[in-house]
Amino acid sequence: MMKKSYHTIIIGTGCAGYNAADRLFSMGVRDIAIVTEGRYMGTSRNTGSDKQTYYKLSLCGSEGDSVREMAKTLYSGGGVMGGHALCEAAYSVRAFMHLVELGVPFPTNEYGEYAGYKTDHDPRSRGTSCGPLTSKYMTEALEGAVLEKGIEIIDLQRVIKIITEEGRVTGIACANVATGEISVIACNNVVLCTGGPACVYKNTVYPESQHGATGLAIDAGAVLSNMEEWQYGIASTGFRWNLSGTYQQVLPRYISVDKEGAEREFLYDALGADSLGLVFLKGYQWPFDVRKTDGSSQVDLLVAEEIKKGNRVYLDYTENPKGLEHGFEGLNKEAYEYLKRSNVLFGTPIERLERMNAGAIELYLSHGIDLKKDRLEIAVCAQHCNGGVAVDDNWQSNVDGLYACGEAAGTFGVYRPGGSALNSTQVGSLRAAEHIAGREARRVATARYAPPKLRYGVSNLSEIRKKLQGEMSRVADFDRSTEGMRGLFDTVDALCREFFDRAVIGGKEETAELFRLYDMVLTQRAVLSAMLYSGEKLGSHGSAFVDRLPDKTDGKIRTTRTLTYKDVSHFEEVSPMPDPELWFETLLARKRN
To answer: What is the rounded CA–CA span in Å between residue 34 and residue 154?
Structure first.
């Protein structure tokens, strides 16, 4: 049984959602609830990587660091608002220490220094980690804090509508994921913590339990930011997992198998002995980057090319790749020295992986894949959307009372330091909670919702989903075709406008799935709009290889962001880095007042 109204509803049970609820409760906002279609679903709990990173201000050693330096690093990724960069730097220690106090086991020495290391796009050693499942540990710790406080969790309810009136949130409508029963809850505020739009592509490393709900914000009238900016990289497709770090550095074989079963080592055929060094580099240059199309990103391009031919691509750890027949001396200096220092100048890739990272083998074994004998099917997959709902410095959208945090918020820009997404889940939800707690209380209105008329018959939901996801991966992933995207945009746009006349469900129990599909097509249309507009204005940049044309940015930082309202996109200059008051006496007096 759920109440008819709440002060604030949080959607999502990941790192951002749980933190928003925990912080709101601690600030005195108690009339809250978390709504989720599945408490144990989502990316935070069900994904990781070779060494999943949390990015924060450096807290160890003698290397200097500062809030403004970290903010500068975040801002220099391009397409980032200055206020977001400064908030995420300034709040990073507070957010990190909250996790520490909740028991997340980040490594520290006996004197209390939290060890760090350099991560992607990181000039300092700001990264830290609990291992490959850092976000899972975070989620569990934050969930424990929420349960201890007795905060209500409304499970098995897919939110199908954020209800607004005159540009302000008044409630939500939900569909029970089992029965399709629709219910309405009134509220003053909604905090959208549903992760990235995992539904967009066929080739994705998002866990199967993750869908996203960006379409809810689109439908509510929210403006989106930078929906063309993504991260893509090589991942396994059976069990979805990033193949970075030691998975690449042990030098597995890359094999292509055609429809007749003929196989070949296509990287070696295309690149010769240089292929070994490029595979090694993919270990820490995992995301596709147009600046590396003459370097390690050639691997991504060649993998994608084989798949588009209709071939299947695998990693094989049981035998050495071509080029190692006569030993390791032919490797480039960087790869040779790394493997030598790791004491693995011997054996096969699986033997090297067992020496360097036995947990990497155990991970796949726990999902029924034995790397000692099984090949690993791969693709270049979408892993993270750097765009999302456009939010202000309090993580509130243009819709009054609608906040978005974590990957649902469009705060990341073109490039981001590895691990900054986990920091953003905590900072954004804390900023949103502070803003909500500081607002004048308002009587919860009655939310009104009239659901659309649904069509019953032979369900076509799965057919529509598979077709559109496949087309997105074919023409609108990292390797983008302007012509292909234009045609797909027209198809998706027409479906958005006629959706409830064309989508058919087999019974009421498919209601939640119907609205999940509607969310997907709204999101795909917005993504394609942003891709087409930025492709025309910017061309190839970041992770976007548009019509195979070279990057012409000359290393310049992007100073604009792409804003999208439903199906129309335009550029806006990003805000500069703020230079707020830092005089102690002034701030102390302000605090007292």
So the answer is: 6
